[in-house]
Amino acid sequence: MSQLVGNQATATAPKAQVGPFVPLWGIAVAGVVIVALIVTIASNSVYGLDFFHVFGGALWISIDLLMGFIIGPIMRRLDIPARMVFSKNLMTKMMVVMPTVVICTLTSGWQLARLDNLFTTPYSPQHGWILAALIVVALLAIIAYAFLEPANIVVLIELRKPEPNGLLIGRMMQRFLYTAGVLGVLQLSIIVIMVRLSTW
Amino acid sequence: MVNTPQPYAGDTKSSPVIACIIGTIISCILAAGIIIAHIPEPAPMWGSIMWVCIAAVLTIATIVLILRKRPFARKLFFTVAKWVFLYILVLTGMGEYVIAFDGTRGEPLVVMTIILLLFLVNIPMLWGFSVARHERTPS
Questions:
Q1: What is the domain extent for residue A87?
Q2: How many domains does chain A have?
Q3: How far is A79 from chain B (nearest CA, A)?
Q4: With contacts defined as CB-CB under 8 Å, which chain B residues touch A151?
Q5: What is the pLDDT of residues A65-105, one digit of tens each?
């Protein structure tokens, strides 16, 4: 199966490409968002931190669920040429969007927990739930950094070559879609934890 | 009998480099987790320091393994690693800013800084190696 996917991918891949790997305008927008986040943290604005955490968290969870349970299965059923064009366009933008969303969600969430005295109340009932959230985030980080993103980069780099290795692309795309599904399941547990914390 | 060359599917062997880096990431998360789990009480630092030392040893082992790997597409490795380094620099920079802003000082700050530095070194190596290991280079 991987070989079939790979051969078709190679046949339909555009010739070698040069130029920026990710859209430069996206990096500029991400830079502005990060600066706004730094200013919000420095000013201890609860509204601003809430905004970054809710907006970032909603985006992060939605994107992971969408990738794992909707886009992933759809991509498996697409024609190979359509799949390659779609994933190439999607992944280059995701490489800018996801790191920014993750940085915003985690740093603002940490600051909110501090401002809500969740760290200064010794062993409050919420303490265990916050630890559970941190454990799930740690699992998400290990899977994303160790398996998902390397597979993504291998596919994008292969597609930029004059003669992409189709078999390798097929293998890496399978890995990417499976790990996206696992991340989707983990994100469901984050929803349970966050709803519990916000309705305490 | 004619031997037909098998199509190359990339480096499919399990790599000690990947195992070492994943071990480092898990050790770093455990070291940070011990400090975070004890907040607001002061955490017993020996546990975190032990995991940081394990992570440091694994990082050195990873660097040695990558340096000794032949044949290896070093150019591609560094091309990928330098851009990932920039991304992780922003991520760890934000982490350090938040930790220092919260008033963390002394041993916990030193341990957290070392953890972030280990991330800064290991994630670019992991992504760079994951790409470069599949590249066919003349031996």
A1: 2-198
A2: 1
A3: 21
A4: 130
A5: 888 888 888 887 877 677 777 877 887 888 888 889 988 99
